Amino acid sequence: MNQSRKPDITKKLGLYHELDIQGLVALCAEVCETKFACLSLRRGEEDYIKAQVGIPENEVWPKGVSLFASVPIISGGDFIVGTLSVMDIRRGRLAPKQIETMELLSRQIVRILEMERINEVKTQQRAFFESSSGIHLLLDTEIKVLDYNKTCAAFFKGVSGIEVYRGAHMLDLLNPQARELFYLSCKKALLGNRVRMEQEIEYDEESIFLEVCYDPVRDSEQRIIGLLINASNISQHKAQEQVIIQQNESLREIAHIQSHELRGPLVSILGLVELLKAGDTDLQECLGMLEQAAGDLDEKIRYAIKLAKI
Hints:
Layout: H1 6-14, H2 21-31, E1 36-43, E2 46-53, E3 67-74, E4 80-88, H3 96-131, E5 135-140, E6 145-148, H4 150-160, H5 170-173, H6 176-190, E7 195-203, E8 206-218, E9 224-233, H7 235-261, H8 263-278, H9 283-308
Antiparallel strand pairs: 1-2, 1-4, 3-4, 5-6, 5-9, 7-8, 8-9
Helix pairs in contact: 2-3, 7-9, 8-9
């Protein structure tokens, strides 16, 4: 290695943890004194170039290569996910220290890749968190706010003018009427129990029903580290439920009318018909009684039809 370049490279190596992937690949080529370097990663069944130095974009492999060395990129799960390679047209071999440096840089690349993946997952989770129409509130074990979505912030603002913010103690934000139930529900969840309830509240100048769930949040060792509160508007479901209840009640009443109340007028009519056949009664009186019984029967039938339309 050129002695005049050593102090500069040593300084860069001391700051390698501040470099991005392209910078690490460039540093790898510089340390190994090669013209070319590249980082290839595996995506499914195919490899692609993540970063490269000295290699034209339209080329996969530089021409005239005589020196080649590589180290695997090994993920945290001990899977080989790519390769860090250096190449040159000169003949020769890398020194052991240069190989060690390549391995050091490969581990830093893994850390960056894993951080990129974590950030990607966080972005996806955040997008889901914010796009949800439900209310989501994440609290620590002291019932302080860790995170929440926009729907949650709008809900508390609309219900009681509360401004939710990270680090706030929820018991300090809630009004006295809601505080006790909220606290008891949180304590049960922090003991490892799932708490579910339905609540009717006034929101946006109308009465709505919410299904509220308090769930304990656990770490990888199953220790409770907080709780997640989810609430969804079930007003439409409750309205449909009420319709079904009314329909069932109507069906029960119709069944009662059919089995009991229709039978009275019908028996009267049948009895009067028999009297008419026998000629044992006054015709006008019998017709009046028939008319009365028919009217009663018609009234019961109309009421049953009305119930059936509910």
